[in-house]
Amino acid sequence: GLVLTGCRPTLHADILISDVSVIDVATGQVIDGQDVLIEGEVIRQVFSHGDRRVQADSIIVGEGRYVMPGLWDMHVHVRSYDPEDILPMFVAYGVTGIRDLGLTSLSSIKQAQAQISEGSMVGPRIISSGVIVEGAEPRFRSSLSVSSREDIARQLDPVVEQGVGVIKLFQNVPGEVFQDVVAYAEEKGLKTAGHIPDEWDQIQAANSGLGSIEYMWGIKNTLAYEDDRLDPVEVSRLADALLAQNTFQTPTLINFSSKLDRESEEFTNRPGVEYSPAYHRVWWDVIRAAGLEPEVEESMRAARPFETAVVR
Q1: What span, in angstroms and rounded, lies between the C-alpha atoms of 130 and 143?
Q2: Can you give the pTM of this predicted structure?
């Protein structure tokens, strides 16, 4: 099809999204009346609707609609009997990339990646750790047990050879060994993500070279929270350390604690929950009915204002 305007040379594209509102996430602005040109998997140009003459194989009428960059969910456990039950839902909610941080078989994830790549299944880009690196007494059967320096190469070389995209660590890996795993991953060109050892704080984790700290692990060792406020000097010190080491924080404010909060109907009554696999909905109901230990539930509830303040 053709959109004709002016006397400039005709632009060619595989896809033209015509007259759409663009969400500029850098400035927070909505820019109405834009044409978006796509070649292959690349956005080539964005300009005001009708400014250029365009010839495109496919034209999507964008009027009344919005286009924005795809979102990433940086802490995911696919944990599905069939990834096809789960992965299309990410895209339906605008999430076009995920980090799968263990508990899902790497072979299953690799098969899904191939199907998504060839277009036979809808799903996001996936960076997967395949497994979790734990200490001497692993919580999960699929985890790798690494409790000494001697364990590192022997346990991790096979998963590196299988092509994992990130190394995921748990807090039960001893501190010195934890640091060595991070260094080993760096040698192999891999990022790391982890819960950090109990005695560490965020700054120590950053200085170890850890790529990302999960679940705000260690934040209470790092920042004091008194009278509903944080010390701006402490916050700046933390921000400087994270920036200096290029270490990221993955807050995961919506996670199991939300599903387990029996006063919250957030998960079971939200629109679209019927698209979740039936076995997931049964699983949530069983967990919610069982509940948490009262002191665990109370500590999670008490931590929420602090964690929200830290993220802000």
Answers
A1: 9
A2: 0.87
